[in-house]
Specification:
This protein has 270 residues and is an alpha+beta fold. It has ten helices and nine strands. The strands form two sheets. Strands 6-5-4-9-8-7 form a six-stranded antiparallel β-sheet. It has a three-stranded antiparallel β-sheet with strand order 1-3-2.
Length: 270
């Protein structure tokens, strides 16, 4: 990431082109050259040249009879067709791989299916030695997993209760919460802070942090998690290091769903 963020490696002309394209949005789909210059942070002359270059390439179109411009449909070729035809696990996999093992021993993507979390993607670099099987297709009860809490917390409470009451809740370890009121309190906490934590609640010696992937209405589509061996670091240290990373991954996947108007979704729970 350092090379990408190094200003010396930034091609200013390319950055200005994308600033022009990003100046248009659903609330203001048609703009004058002066509007574009102001919204993109460019002088009017630069905006004029870039707009007319993009017009010649088909990415911006003049609005007939006015001095305004709009985005052309050719902009859909800028990755949308390729990215939107891939499902969520395809987009999640590289984001998880980038952070395993530097941030965590394992990274997962899972979805709620009734009282269970079904794993769709798993990147593992050591958590498997704890005798837990989290390969794609495997299930774990949502009430006992951070990945489940992260998603349940963003459902209406009536739906939370319905799911939690739909299957028997047993202790997976001495730390597992099974009482309904205690679980609902936990879910309120998770919703307020935006992520869930598990410290040996469903597997001894493992610590997990998880966050939800939300659709445009704010409901959970999936969840992502990072897990470490408890011997690697203290819980507070792990949360401090992993929280910004898990929230970033969850937000990127949430944005992908929203930007694609739902075209990117969960294709299969294989």
């Amino acid at each position: 990431m350092a090379d990408v963020e190094n200003a010396k490696n930034l091609v200013q002309s390319a950055a200005k082109v994308f600033a022009v394209l990003r100046a248009f949005d659903p609330a203001i789909p048609e703009l004058t050259i002066t509007d574009v210059a102001g919204r993109a942070g460019l002088d009017r002359g630069t905006a004029f040249r870039l707009i007319h270059t993009l017009v010649s390439l088909g990415y911006i179109c003049p609005v007939s009879g006015t001095k305004r411009f709009r985005l052309g449909l050719k902009c859909l070729e800028l990755g949308f067709l390729t990215l939107s035809c891939q499902d969520l696990k395809v987009h999640a996999a590289p984001l998880l791989r980038e952070r395993v093992p530097s941030i965590a021993d394992a990274g997962s993507l899972g979805v709620l299916d009734g009282p269970d979390v079904v794993y769709l993607e798993r990147v593992d670099d050591g958590a498997g030695r704890h005798d837990v099987d989290r390969r794609p297709g495997r299930r774990i009860r949502a009430y006992g997993a951070a990945l489940g809490h992260a998603q349940l917390a963003f459902l209406p409470e009536a739906r939370q209760i319905e799911i939690l009451e739909s299957a028997e809740r047993v202790k997976l370890s001495e730390r597992t919460l099974t009482e309904l009121d205690a679980l609902l309190d936990r879910l309120r906490l998770v919703r307020s802070r935006g992520y869930a934590i598990s410290d040996g609640e469903n597997a001894y010696g493992l610590r997990t942090i998880a966050a939800p992937v939300l659709d445009a209405s704010g409901l959970p589509v999936a969840g992502v998690s990072f897990t470490i061996d408890a011997s690697r670091m203290a819980l507070d240290e792990f949360v401090a290091m992993a929280k910004p990373e898990i929230l970033s991954v969850a937000q990127q996947l949430t944005d992908a769903i929203r930007y694609s108007a739902g075209a990117i979704g969960v294709a299969s729970m294989r």
